[in-house]
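Please fill in the sequence for the structure shown.

STRUCTURE ENCODING:
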C-alpha cells in the first residue's frame, strides 16, 4: 500500500458519503483476513464489531490488555466475545519489561511526568500493538474526528507510516456522538456500562475519570495533562 492508493481510496469514500459499512467493506475487499479490528471495547469499537460481522463471517479482533483496565471493560469484552462470532486476539505487556518498570518506579509513576506516563503507555500499549500488527497488512479503528482536537484531520483511509506503511482504516471518522448512539440503540448493541456513568472515553482505570457536564469528551483521559498531550502513542 502506498500514498497514491490511499488518496484514491479516500476519494472513493468521499463519493460514498463516507458510509462506515462501505469503507470497511472496501477494506475487507482489499485485505481479506489480513485486516484486523483494533478494539478497546469502547462504544465506537462495539459499533465497528457489529458492522464487521455484517460483512465477514468471523472478523479478527485484537485487544490490548494492559493489566490495569476497569472491571467493566473486561465484562463487555466477554459479552462481545459471546454475542459476536469474532476471533479475539488478546495481547499483554512483556512481563520482564513491566516487572522492571514496577520495581524501579512503582505503581503510579505515570502521574509524575509526561515522560513516565508515555513510558508506561509504551510498555502496556505501544509494544503490544506492534506485536498485534505483525500478522496483518491493515487495521481498522473506532477513531472519530469528534473525539478530540488531535483527531480533527482523520480520514477514512490512512497510510500508517509509523507501523510499516500498513493501511489504517477509520470507518467511523465522520460520525457524530448522536449518530453513534443512535446506531447503538437501533441495533441493540451492548456497550461498556461506564459510558452511562459519565465516561465517554475509557482507558486504564488509574488514568480515566468521569467527565463533568460541558467538559470535552476526552477530558477524563490523563486529566492532569494538557489536551495536546492526550495520546498514548497508539495513533501517531
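FILLED IN BY: designer on duty
SEQUENCE:
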Amino acid at each position: 500500500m502506498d500514498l497514491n492508493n490511499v488518496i484514491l481510496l479516500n476519494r472513493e469514500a468521499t463519493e460514498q458519503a463516507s458510509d462506515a459499512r462501505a469503507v470497511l467493506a472496501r477494506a475487507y475487499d482489499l485485505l481479506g483476513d489480513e485486516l484486523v479490528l483494533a478494539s478497546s471495547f469502547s462504544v465506537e469499537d462495539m459499533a465497528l464489531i457489529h458492522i464487521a460481522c455484517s460483512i465477514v463471517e468471523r472478523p479478527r479482533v485484537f485487544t490490548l490488555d494492559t493489566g490495569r483496565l476497569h472491571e467493566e471493560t473486561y465484562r463487555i469484552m466477554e459479552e462481545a466475545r459471546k454475542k459476536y462470532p469474532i476471533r479475539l486476539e488478546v495481547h499483554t505487556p512483556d512481563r520482564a519489561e513491566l516487572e522492571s518498570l514496577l520495581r524501579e518506579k512503582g505503581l503510579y509513576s505515570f502521574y509524575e511526568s509526561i515522560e513516565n506516563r508515555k513510558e508506561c503507555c509504551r510498555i502496556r500499549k505501544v509494544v503490544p500493538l506492534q506485536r498485534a500488527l505483525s500478522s496483518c497488512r491493515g487495521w481498522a479503528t473506532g477513531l472519530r474526528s469528534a473525539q478530540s482536537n488531535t483527531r480533527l484531520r482523520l480520514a477514512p483511509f490512512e497510510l500508517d507510516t509509523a507501523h510499516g506503511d500498513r493501511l489504517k482504516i477509520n470507518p467511523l471518522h465522520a460520525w457524530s456522538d448522536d449518530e453513534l448512539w443512535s446506531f447503538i440503540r437501533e441495533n441493540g448493541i451492548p456497550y461498556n456500562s461506564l459510558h452511562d456513568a459519565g465516561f465517554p472515553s475509557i482507558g486504564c482505570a488509574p488514568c480515566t475519570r468521569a467527565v463533568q457536564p460541558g467538559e470535552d469528551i476526552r477530558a477524563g483521559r490523563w486529566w492532569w495533562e494538557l489536551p495536546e498531550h492526550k495520546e498514548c502513542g497508539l495513533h501517531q
